[in-house]
Amino acid sequence: MTDLFTKEPDLLSLSYDKVKAIAEKCQKCSLCKTRHKVVFGHGPVPCDIMLIGEAPGADEDEQGLPFVGRAGKLLTLILESVDIKRPTDIYIANTLKCRPPNNRAPQADEQAACWPYLEAQLHFIKPKILLLAGTPSVKRVLQINEPITKIRGQWFKLPNHENISVMPIFHPAYLLRNPQKTKGSPKWHTWQDMKEIKNALDYLKKVKELSSNG
Ligand code: URA
Ligand code: URA
To answer: Which residues form the Uracil-DNA glycosylase-like domain (predicted)?
Structure first.
Protein backbone atom coordinates (compact mmCIF):
# COMPACT_ATOMS: atom_id res chain seq x y z
CA MET A 1 0.00 0.00 0.00
CA THR A 2 1.17 3.50 -0.71
CA ASP A 3 1.40 6.08 1.99
CA LEU A 4 -1.44 8.60 2.23
CA PHE A 5 0.62 11.57 1.15
CA THR A 6 2.93 9.84 -1.31
CA LYS A 7 3.02 11.87 -4.50
CA GLU A 8 1.95 10.05 -7.61
CA PRO A 9 4.29 11.65 -10.14
CA ASP A 10 2.49 9.94 -12.99
CA LEU A 11 -0.75 11.79 -12.21
CA LEU A 12 0.76 15.05 -10.97
CA SER A 13 2.79 15.45 -14.15
CA LEU A 14 -0.35 15.27 -16.28
CA SER A 15 -3.04 17.89 -16.87
CA TYR A 16 -6.25 18.09 -14.85
CA ASP A 17 -8.29 17.01 -17.87
CA LYS A 18 -6.03 14.03 -18.49
CA VAL A 19 -6.27 12.87 -14.86
CA LYS A 20 -10.05 13.25 -15.02
CA ALA A 21 -10.13 11.17 -18.21
CA ILE A 22 -8.03 8.45 -16.55
CA ALA A 23 -10.30 8.43 -13.48
CA GLU A 24 -13.35 8.11 -15.72
CA LYS A 25 -12.01 4.76 -16.96
CA CYS A 26 -10.67 3.65 -13.56
CA GLN A 27 -10.85 -0.02 -12.60
CA LYS A 28 -8.69 0.12 -9.48
CA CYS A 29 -11.43 -1.17 -7.17
CA SER A 30 -14.58 -3.24 -7.51
CA LEU A 31 -16.89 -0.20 -7.48
CA CYS A 32 -16.16 0.13 -11.21
CA LYS A 33 -18.41 -2.90 -11.76
CA THR A 34 -21.53 -1.32 -10.29
CA ARG A 35 -21.10 2.40 -11.04
CA HIS A 36 -22.89 4.12 -13.89
CA LYS A 37 -20.81 7.29 -13.97
CA VAL A 38 -17.56 8.27 -12.31
CA VAL A 39 -18.09 11.41 -10.25
CA PHE A 40 -14.67 13.01 -10.47
CA GLY A 41 -15.44 16.48 -9.13
CA HIS A 42 -16.79 19.80 -10.32
CA GLY A 43 -15.82 23.46 -10.09
CA PRO A 44 -13.11 25.91 -11.10
CA VAL A 45 -9.48 24.78 -11.44
CA PRO A 46 -7.71 26.26 -9.49
CA CYS A 47 -10.04 27.46 -6.71
CA ASP A 48 -9.48 29.00 -3.26
CA ILE A 49 -12.06 26.77 -1.61
CA MET A 50 -12.72 23.07 -2.05
CA LEU A 51 -15.08 20.64 -0.34
CA ILE A 52 -14.62 16.90 0.01
CA GLY A 53 -17.66 14.73 0.74
CA GLU A 54 -17.95 11.00 1.23
CA ALA A 55 -19.01 9.23 -1.96
CA PRO A 56 -21.52 9.63 -4.79
CA GLY A 57 -25.10 8.50 -4.19
CA ALA A 58 -27.70 7.40 -6.73
CA ASP A 59 -28.32 10.85 -8.26
CA GLU A 60 -24.61 11.60 -8.52
CA ASP A 61 -23.94 8.16 -10.06
CA GLU A 62 -26.59 8.91 -12.67
CA GLN A 63 -25.45 12.45 -13.51
CA GLY A 64 -21.69 12.18 -12.99
CA LEU A 65 -21.70 15.30 -10.78
CA PRO A 66 -21.11 15.60 -7.02
CA PHE A 67 -23.81 16.59 -4.53
CA VAL A 68 -26.77 16.90 -6.90
CA GLY A 69 -29.29 14.84 -4.86
CA ARG A 70 -31.23 15.86 -1.76
CA ALA A 71 -28.12 16.39 0.40
CA GLY A 72 -26.52 18.26 -2.49
CA LYS A 73 -29.45 20.65 -2.78
CA LEU A 74 -29.14 21.44 0.92
CA LEU A 75 -25.40 21.91 0.49
CA THR A 76 -26.08 24.40 -2.31
CA LEU A 77 -28.39 26.39 0.00
CA ILE A 78 -25.90 26.30 2.88
CA LEU A 79 -23.13 27.63 0.64
CA GLU A 80 -25.41 30.26 -0.87
CA SER A 81 -26.29 31.48 2.61
CA VAL A 82 -22.78 32.94 2.75
CA ASP A 83 -22.69 33.89 -0.92
CA ILE A 84 -20.60 30.93 -2.13
CA LYS A 85 -22.16 29.93 -5.45
CA ARG A 86 -21.93 26.58 -7.19
CA PRO A 87 -20.18 25.78 -9.44
CA THR A 88 -18.31 29.07 -9.89
CA ASP A 89 -16.98 29.71 -6.37
CA ILE A 90 -16.14 26.26 -4.99
CA TYR A 91 -14.66 23.00 -6.25
CA ILE A 92 -16.47 19.91 -4.93
CA ALA A 93 -15.24 16.31 -4.86
CA ASN A 94 -15.59 13.14 -2.80
CA THR A 95 -13.21 10.66 -1.15
CA LEU A 96 -14.61 8.06 -3.57
CA LYS A 97 -15.33 8.80 -7.22
CA CYS A 98 -17.74 5.87 -7.60
CA ARG A 99 -20.96 5.04 -5.79
CA PRO A 100 -20.78 2.22 -3.24
CA PRO A 101 -23.70 -0.21 -3.78
CA ASN A 102 -26.77 0.83 -1.73
CA ASN A 103 -24.76 3.79 -0.42
CA ARG A 104 -22.87 1.64 2.07
CA ALA A 105 -19.90 3.29 3.79
CA PRO A 106 -16.68 3.58 1.77
CA GLN A 107 -14.21 0.78 2.50
CA ALA A 108 -10.60 1.51 3.37
CA ASP A 109 -9.28 -0.31 0.29
CA GLU A 110 -11.61 1.69 -1.97
CA GLN A 111 -10.52 4.95 -0.38
CA ALA A 112 -6.88 3.94 -0.73
CA ALA A 113 -7.34 3.06 -4.42
CA CYS A 114 -9.06 6.40 -5.01
CA TRP A 115 -6.67 8.55 -2.96
CA PRO A 116 -4.22 9.39 -5.79
CA TYR A 117 -7.07 11.12 -7.67
CA LEU A 118 -7.85 13.26 -4.64
CA GLU A 119 -4.17 14.02 -4.17
CA ALA A 120 -4.03 15.10 -7.83
CA GLN A 121 -7.12 17.26 -7.34
CA LEU A 122 -5.49 19.03 -4.38
CA HIS A 123 -2.48 19.62 -6.61
CA PHE A 124 -4.51 21.12 -9.46
CA ILE A 125 -7.19 22.95 -7.46
CA LYS A 126 -4.66 24.38 -4.98
CA PRO A 127 -7.31 25.26 -2.39
CA LYS A 128 -6.42 27.57 0.49
CA ILE A 129 -9.49 26.42 2.41
CA LEU A 130 -10.60 22.81 2.45
CA LEU A 131 -13.95 21.74 3.91
CA LEU A 132 -14.40 18.11 4.93
CA ALA A 133 -18.06 17.12 5.06
CA GLY A 134 -18.76 14.18 7.35
CA THR A 135 -16.76 11.60 9.25
CA PRO A 136 -15.43 9.41 6.39
CA SER A 137 -13.95 12.46 4.70
CA VAL A 138 -12.38 13.74 7.95
CA LYS A 139 -10.96 10.32 8.82
CA ARG A 140 -9.57 9.79 5.39
CA VAL A 141 -8.07 13.21 4.72
CA LEU A 142 -6.92 14.28 8.20
CA GLN A 143 -6.22 10.74 9.41
CA ILE A 144 -7.85 11.39 12.77
CA ASN A 145 -10.59 9.49 14.56
CA GLU A 146 -12.12 12.26 16.65
CA PRO A 147 -15.92 12.36 16.30
CA ILE A 148 -17.08 15.13 14.00
CA THR A 149 -19.32 16.52 16.74
CA LYS A 150 -16.12 17.38 18.64
CA ILE A 151 -13.94 18.82 15.88
CA ARG A 152 -16.32 20.50 13.42
CA GLY A 153 -15.74 24.21 13.14
CA GLN A 154 -12.05 23.94 14.10
CA TRP A 155 -9.19 24.74 11.74
CA PHE A 156 -6.62 22.07 11.01
CA LYS A 157 -3.58 21.94 8.75
CA LEU A 158 -3.42 19.26 6.12
CA PRO A 159 -0.30 17.10 6.72
CA ASN A 160 2.22 17.76 3.93
CA HIS A 161 0.05 20.64 2.68
CA GLU A 162 0.75 23.19 5.40
CA ASN A 163 -0.68 26.06 3.35
CA ILE A 164 -4.14 24.49 3.28
CA SER A 165 -6.50 25.31 6.16
CA VAL A 166 -8.93 22.49 6.76
CA MET A 167 -12.30 22.64 8.52
CA PRO A 168 -14.51 19.62 9.25
CA ILE A 169 -18.22 20.40 8.90
CA PHE A 170 -21.36 18.32 9.35
CA HIS A 171 -22.44 16.36 6.28
CA PRO A 172 -25.59 17.82 4.70
CA ALA A 173 -27.24 14.36 4.81
CA TYR A 174 -26.81 14.49 8.61
CA LEU A 175 -28.45 17.91 8.62
CA LEU A 176 -31.38 16.48 6.63
CA ARG A 177 -31.87 13.95 9.42
CA ASN A 178 -31.52 16.68 12.08
CA PRO A 179 -33.56 19.57 10.70
CA GLN A 180 -34.02 21.57 13.93
CA LYS A 181 -32.36 24.99 13.95
CA THR A 182 -32.34 25.76 17.65
CA LYS A 183 -29.19 27.04 19.32
CA GLY A 184 -26.69 24.21 19.76
CA SER A 185 -28.30 22.04 17.03
CA PRO A 186 -26.21 20.68 14.11
CA LYS A 187 -27.78 23.21 11.72
CA TRP A 188 -27.08 26.07 14.11
CA HIS A 189 -23.44 24.94 14.42
CA THR A 190 -23.18 24.69 10.63
CA TRP A 191 -24.39 28.27 10.30
CA GLN A 192 -21.65 29.41 12.74
CA ASP A 193 -19.09 27.39 10.74
CA MET A 194 -20.22 28.90 7.44
CA LYS A 195 -19.83 32.42 8.81
CA GLU A 196 -16.30 31.55 9.95
CA ILE A 197 -15.51 30.08 6.51
CA LYS A 198 -16.89 33.16 4.77
CA ASN A 199 -14.70 35.39 6.96
CA ALA A 200 -11.64 33.34 6.04
CA LEU A 201 -12.51 33.58 2.33
CA ASP A 202 -13.05 37.34 2.55
CA TYR A 203 -9.70 37.69 4.30
CA LEU A 204 -7.97 35.72 1.52
CA LYS A 205 -9.61 37.97 -1.06
CA LYS A 206 -8.42 41.08 0.72
CA VAL A 207 -4.84 39.82 0.98
CA LYS A 208 -4.93 39.03 -2.75
CA GLU A 209 -6.24 42.49 -3.61
CA LEU A 210 -3.60 44.18 -1.46
CA SER A 211 -0.79 42.18 -3.02
CA SER A 212 -2.03 42.82 -6.57
CA ASN A 213 -2.15 46.56 -5.81
CA GLY A 214 1.56 46.40 -5.03
N1 URA B 1 -3.24 4.27 3.49
C2 URA B 1 -3.19 5.56 3.18
O3 URA B 1 -3.22 6.37 4.05
N4 URA B 1 -3.11 5.92 1.90
C5 URA B 1 -3.09 5.05 0.90
O6 URA B 1 -3.04 5.44 -0.26
C7 URA B 1 -3.14 3.69 1.25
C8 URA B 1 -3.23 3.34 2.55
N1 URA C 1 -23.03 12.65 -0.40
C2 URA C 1 -21.71 12.81 -0.57
O3 URA C 1 -20.92 12.63 0.34
N4 URA C 1 -21.28 13.15 -1.77
C5 URA C 1 -22.07 13.36 -2.81
O6 URA C 1 -21.58 13.69 -3.88
C7 URA C 1 -23.46 13.20 -2.62
C8 URA C 1 -23.91 12.85 -1.41
So the answer is: 40-195
